[in-house]
Amino acid sequence: MFADLIATPGVEEVHRDGAAVGVMAIHGGIEAGTGSIAHAVIEATGAALYAVVQPQTLRWHVPSIRFDPAHSKRLRRFLDSVETAISLHGYGEPGFEATALLGGNNRALAWAIHGELAARGIAAIADLNGIPARLRGVHRLNPVNRPPLAGTQIELPMELREGRPMEAVIDALVVSVENAIAHLSGQTASS
């Protein structure tokens, strides 16, 4: 399924080397704004990037756990180059229209991002028990959990993927990624 997606004409698989923290937008093109947020964060921080961007004529949602690095040299290189990652996703769930959901298996990173989002007035849930099970992103095959320190899957509703709220999300993620990079390199980051 994943191998077929990245072999489809018009689908662009993007990998950019960077710091030991990576940012992913694996559903770029079908989850509006996630690719733009990822690019803004990596440009500001020097983080690594992995994205799959589909043309507007294609709407193929391959589940995260199907993104197998055995089928992609770029994904494998990305995962081999980072210690932890943030994977950006879009979602729509009644009752969560303006709330970021912070899943994945790197819970320390999830709570750090939660703090940065909260400081900017953005509602977020980092307690896995408060996140619908299908949006938790904790499966071991999810690419965000494959780096040595695992990662955080961020589910963003449309309201947080456009306009001023998106700018606040980007700002929070830039600080979170800078702090994670500094922590991994044994330095102290300034925000």
Topology:
Blueprint: H1 2-7, E1 12-16, E2 21-28, H2 34-45, E3 48-53, H3 73-81, E4 84-91, E5 99-103, H4 107-119, E6 123-125, E7 151-157, H5 163-184
Parallel strand pairs: 2-3, 2-4, 4-7, 5-6
Antiparallel strand pairs: 1-3, 5-7
Keywords:
single chain, 191 residues, Aminopeptidase, 7-stranded mixed β-sheet, 5 helices, 32% helix
Q: Would you list the SSEs in sequence order as H and E?
A: HEEHEHEEHEEH
Helix content: 25-40%
Number of domains as seen in the coordinates:
1
Shape descriptor: globular
Biggest sheet statistics: 7 strands, mixed
Strand content: 15-25%
Radius of gyration: 15 Å
Overall mean pLDDT stands at 95
CATH hierarchy, class: Alpha Beta
Number of helices: 5
Describe this structure in words.
The longest helix has 22 residues, at 163-184. The chain is globular, with a radius of gyration of 15 Å. The protein has a single domain (2-184), classed as Aminopeptidase (3-Layer(aba) Sandwich). It has 5 helices and 7 strands. The chain has helices at 2-7, 34-45, 73-81, 107-119, 163-184; strands at 12-16, 21-28, 48-53, 84-91, 99-103, 123-125, 151-157. By secondary structure, the protein is α/β, with parallel strands linked by helices.
